[in-house]
Amino acid sequence: MTTSTMPAKRQIVFSEARFARRRIVNLIMLGLTGAMALLALVPLIWITTYVILRGGSSINVSFFTQAPRPLGVAGGGVLHAIQGTFILTALAGVFAIPPGVLAAVYAARNPNTPLGIAVRFSTDVLSGVPSIVVGLFGYALIVKTQGHYSALAGGLALAILMLPIVVRTTEEMIKLVPHTLREGSLALGAAEWKTTLRVVLPAAMNGIITGLMLGLARASGETAPLLFTALGNERYDAFRIIKSGIQTGQNPLSILNMLVEQPIDSLPLTLWKYAQQPYPERINQAWGVALVLMAIVLLTNVSAKLWVTRRAGQLKG
Amino acid sequence: MVKQLYGELDVENNKPAIKGLAVKETVEEVLASLEMKMEMSDVSVFYGNFRALAGVSLKIPTQRITAIIGPSGCGKSTLLRSFNRMNDLTPNIRTEGDVLLDSRNIYAPGIDVVDVRRRIGMVFQRPNPFPKSIYDNVAYGPRLYGIRRHSELDEIVEGSLRQAALWEEVKDKLHHSGLALSGGQQQRLCIARALAVEPEVILMDEPASALDPVATLRIEELMHNLVEQYTIVIVTHNMQQAARVSDFTGMMMMRDDRAGELIEFDRTDLIFTRPEDKRTEDYVTGRFG
Question: What pLDDT shows up at residue A313?
């Protein structure tokens, strides 16, 4: 209340030189960070342009619609690898997403229980395991026991790689849902699981979808885990398998089984194999494959982003 | 404007102050003449070893508004949340004592918490509509209890929104997101959501503290209408609000060991004009807190 406790006003003298120095330092720092920001863009732009330039020439309709032809025979495409990439990624999603999301729900709700801590720790460890090791694991677990390479083994290996991404992003997104929303539901008498299913998961859905898309994109671009599991199969043709299955009157389940029980190719696997061959024809196709792969991953990401923003817009009204 | 619940307080001439109750009646006399919806006896709440609530006993009369006031951190919310067992959701929490709803202890073994929470609704400090449409927000509770028929749900949604004085504002946009509403409308939506499961008691945890004065007034008006059918317990640190809306007021304070206790409970008109406890007097006159 009394004025005696007020400290004396400090006198600070700003000289012109001091101002000038500050302006210069500021400019230097701005320039430095700006230049580094540009530098960070260089690899992406460089890779994209280079892949488009080198791969663009191999891209035509038959590249997407035809199976590979023998060397020296003109035409042919990588339909088998495109089919394979979609089938493998779908398998990985089926294996990784349901358990991953449910584990994340558990870990987010029970963070300090032994199981919750174990889930978080093991996903951290799992995300650090080299992908080739995961491939070996798939080989030992499925290929060895079944006695043959298969799409199923490849899908499982990819799922193991995807799992930590699914669990961690889902868990983070669930944790971001305000506590008050949960309480609102519980106060109406809703059970814990109904609250999670009807309120928490829908509220976190945008982030979860983004995480799942990132996981799928990651899985679709992996090569190493497929080397010992999916192996590769230039003669794979999903359409033919389905057609012959229908003609011989198989039920949908056994057709599905036929689709996944044999070795399968994927775009990264084809890229890896073609790029090793000494023929310019194959090298060019490898660049084409790279372009298709990049386009698929980019499209997945962009469409997920668009979907999420549209949905967020609807929710905010 | 808010309907005036109390007449001019005129102690000398013994004029009625609370809906037909004479001023000279003490709170004990008044309570004796009323039916009790809930009764809390000697309730203590512990967070681990820390005692947050020290043996609170409190009676909540049917279809009246009971306000709980007191400075921040004195355990008002903890007290309110022990009325519908929301405290159970906090880890390491322990509640001792009895809370009776229609003379049955809601903490007794064998009591269905889901049923307790259906009969005792809750409105929170910050409006917390679900990220769903207005319709789905209100229909959420009824759907939980198995109501699926569209005609029935439509009826409940409209009725609840009307009761919450929100129907006219939202009837043309029931399928828009509840988050698109203003703060005050969101809070009334949350009240409608609570009403949709036909509770008997509504607990309100500072329901207007995040709202502007106009929206606050609408919530208070709404409380006056709702009390015709429901029993309301409101926690507030806005003393004018407690004075405006409630019939009875409990004053809480933090003891030296930081446990909250109820230091005074009286008719609202008396607690704001003739508090018996010195600390209540200091608090309601703004000298502290």
Answer: 64
Sorted by sequence, the CB contacts under 8 Å of residue A21 that are 6+ apart come out as none
Residue ranges of B 142-161 with Cβ closer than 8 A to chain A? 144-145
Over the stretch A258-303, which tens digit does the pLDDT of each residue have? Answer: 999 999 999 999 999 999 999 998 999 999 999 999 999 888 888 8
b/e burial code for range A120-147 (CB count within 10 A of at least 16 → b)? beebeebeeeebeebbbbbbeebbeeee
pLDDT of residue A73: 86
Interface touch A183/B118, C-beta < 8 Å: no
Q: Which of A189, A202, A317 lies closest to B114 in CB terms?
A: A189
Chain B contact set for A194 (CB, 8 A)? 144
- Least CB–CB distance from B197: residue in A184, A188, A194: A188
Does pLDDT of A164 surpass 90? yes
Task: Summarize the confidence of residues A5-10 as an average pLDDT.
Answer: 74
Please report residues of A whose CB lies closer than 8 A to that of B176.
317
CATH topology of domain A81-269: MetI-like fold (1.10.3720)
CB distance B140–A315 less than 8 Å?
Answer: no
Between CA B135 and CA A156 the distance in angstroms is 42
Residue B11's pLDDT is 44
Res B189 pLDDT > 80: yes
Using alpha carbons, list the distances in angstroms from residue B183 to A314, B126, B208.
Answer: 18, 9, 10
How much is the pTM?
0.81
According to the model, what pLDDT value does residue B91 have? 85
> Which residue, among A113, A174, A177, A188, would best test binding to B if mutated, counting the most B CBs under 10 Å from its CB?
A188
Per residue in B11-48, pLDDT tens? 444 444 555 555 567 888 888 889 999 999 999 999 99
Token readout for A233 is 């199969």
CA–CA separation, B3 vs A114, rounded Å?
A: 56
Q: Where are the domains of chain A?
A: 81-269
pLDDT number for residue A198: 93
Provide ipTM, 2 decimals: 0.86
Q: What residue in B sits closest to A179 (Cα-Cα)?
A: B128
Q: Is B77 left (phi over 0), alpha (psi -120 to 50) or beta?
A: alpha
Residues of chain A contacting residue B118, judged by C-beta atoms under 8 Å apart: 188-189
Rounded Cα–Cα distance for residues A115 and B105 (Å): 35
**Architecture of the domain delimited by B16-284:** 3-Layer(aba) Sandwich (3.40)
Q: Are strands B16-18 and B21-22 parallel, antiparallel or unpaired?
A: antiparallel
Of residues B115, B121, B128, nearest to A180 (C-beta): B128
The tokens for A109 are 């709700």
Strand partners, B67: B234, B249
Rg of chain B on CA atoms, in Å: 19
* Size of the A and B interface in Cβ pairs below 8 Å: 73
DSSP string of A4-49, one letter each residue = GGSPPPP-----HHHHHHHHHHHHHHHHHHHHHHHHHHHHHHHHHH
Identity of the residue in B115, B128, B197 whose CB atom sits nearest the CB atom of A184: B128
Chain A residue with CA closest to B115: the answer is A189
Which residue in the block uniquely carries the two structure tokens 């009895």?
Answer: B98
How many whole angstroms separate alpha carbon A30 and alpha carbon A224? 41
Enumerate the domain spans of chain B: 16-284
The CA distance from A78 to the nearest CA of chain B, in Å, is 44
